[in-house]
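Trying the structure run again after the queue cleared.
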Amino acid sequence: MDYIATVRSLATRGRRILPYVVAILLVSAAVLFAVSCSGSTVAFSNDSTVQTLNIEVAATPEERAQGLMGYESLPADSGMLFDFQGDVSSAFWMKDTSIPLSIAFVDSSGKIISIHDLEPFDETPVKPQGEYRYAIEANRGWFSAHGIAPGFRVSIDI
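Done. Tokens:
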């Protein structure tokens, strides 16, 4: 058996199909990237308006404890959703958070129960009266600039 001829034959075939393999890998990578970038959103609505916010989700206790601490900026129309996976009454504060934020507290039925503006590095506890399921942080003034107020309904697409 002529091993050199066999190896040359395989190499020739490999060179012929290599562009197709590379193309398939590139297309697969692009599709996976597009799917991963689709992101999560929250839609706020009342009878006359709907506004959307792109969100990062903090679902675990570690993610919720970290929140936006250490972030230097937050893109426009972006925020963070804290999902407590049940009703809570714990407070938020701005320790180690340098971005001015607004926070909306949302009850388990999906209704905003209160919105508060927060100051960077302020350690004053902030919470609504009563229990809530979600908290949504955005750049300070985002909710008021978009006409969003307590009573709006929230639809979460994670």
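The beta strands are 40-45, 50-58, 78-88, 101-106, 112-118, 132-139, 153-157. Worth checking whether this holds up in the mutant runs.
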